[in-house]
Amino acid sequence: MKYLLFLAIKSQGKKARGFTLIELLIVVILLGVLAAISLPSLFGQVAKGRQAEARAALGLINRAQQGYRYEKGTFATLSELSLEAASISLTFYNISEVGTRDAFGAAYRANAVTEFDDDIKNYAGAAGQTAAGAYTGIVCEDETPLEDNVSTSNSAGVLACVDGIEIN
User: Fold this and answer.
1) Is residue 151, in this structure, part of any structural domain at all?
2) What's the per-residue H, E or C state across the chain?
3) How many whole angstroms separate alpha carbon 99 and alpha carbon 96?
4) pTM of the model
5) What's the domain range around 119?
6) Which residues of the chain have pLDDT under 50?
7) What is the largest CA-CA distance in the chain?
C-alpha cells in the first residue's frame, strides 16, 4: 500500500507539460484571422509601389519638357529630350506620346504592360505653357485598374485631366 501511495504522489509531481489540442487549434485560428485581415493591405501596397514607377517617370518627363521648352522655344518629342527621360527603363509601364506637340504643350501616357494591365492603374501626363508664359505640368491617374481611358486636355497651356484624377 505504501508503494501505491508513493507512486501516486510521484506521478503528481511529473505533470505532463505542453499544449493541448484545443490550445493549438485556437492559435492556428487566430493566425488565420490575422493573415486574412493583413493580406489585402499587403497586396494594395505592392500595387502602389508599382504605380510609383509611372508617377515618377511622368514627373521626370514633365520637368524635362519644361526645361526643353525654356531652352529651345518648343516642346520636344520623347526622343528629342536630352535627359534620360527619352530612354527611361520601366518594368511595369510603357510610355508613349499622345497626339502632336504644339506651342502650348505635349502629352504622353503610361500604360501598364500586359501582365499587369488589370492590377495597376494607367497614367497620363502633359507639360504646357500658358499664353502668359507660365509653365504647367500635370499627371493624372485612372480611377481603377480596369479603366484605360485617362487622358489630359490642353487649352492654350491650361492643363486638365479627362476621365481621371489629378495627382500632382
Assistant:
1) yes
2) CHHHHHHHHHHHHCCCCCCCHHHHHHHHHHHHHHHHHHHHHHHHHHHHHHHHHHHHHHHHHHHHHHHHHHHHCCCCCHHHCCCHHHHCCCCCEEEEEEEEEECCEEEEEEEECHHHCCCCCCEEEEEEECCCCCEEEEEEECCCCCCCCCEEEEECCEEEEECCEECC
3) 10
4) 0.75
5) 22-166
6) 86
7) 110
Q: How far apart, in whole angstroms, are the C-alpha atoms of residue 70 and residue 16?
A: 81
**The pLDDT value given to residue 90:** 86
> Residue 101 corresponds to which cell in the numbers above?
506637340
Q: Which three cell numbers stand for residue 45?
A: 501596397
Q: What is the CATH number of the domain that holds 70?
A: 3.30.700
Domain-located, residue 155: yes
What is the count of structural domains for the chain?
A: 1
d(C-alpha 74, C-alpha 90), whole Å: 26
Q: What are 58-87's pLDDT values in tens digits?
A: 999 999 999 999 999 999 988 888 655 545
Separation of alpha carbons 84 and 41, rounded Å: 34
CA angle 134, 74, 112 (to 5 degrees): 85
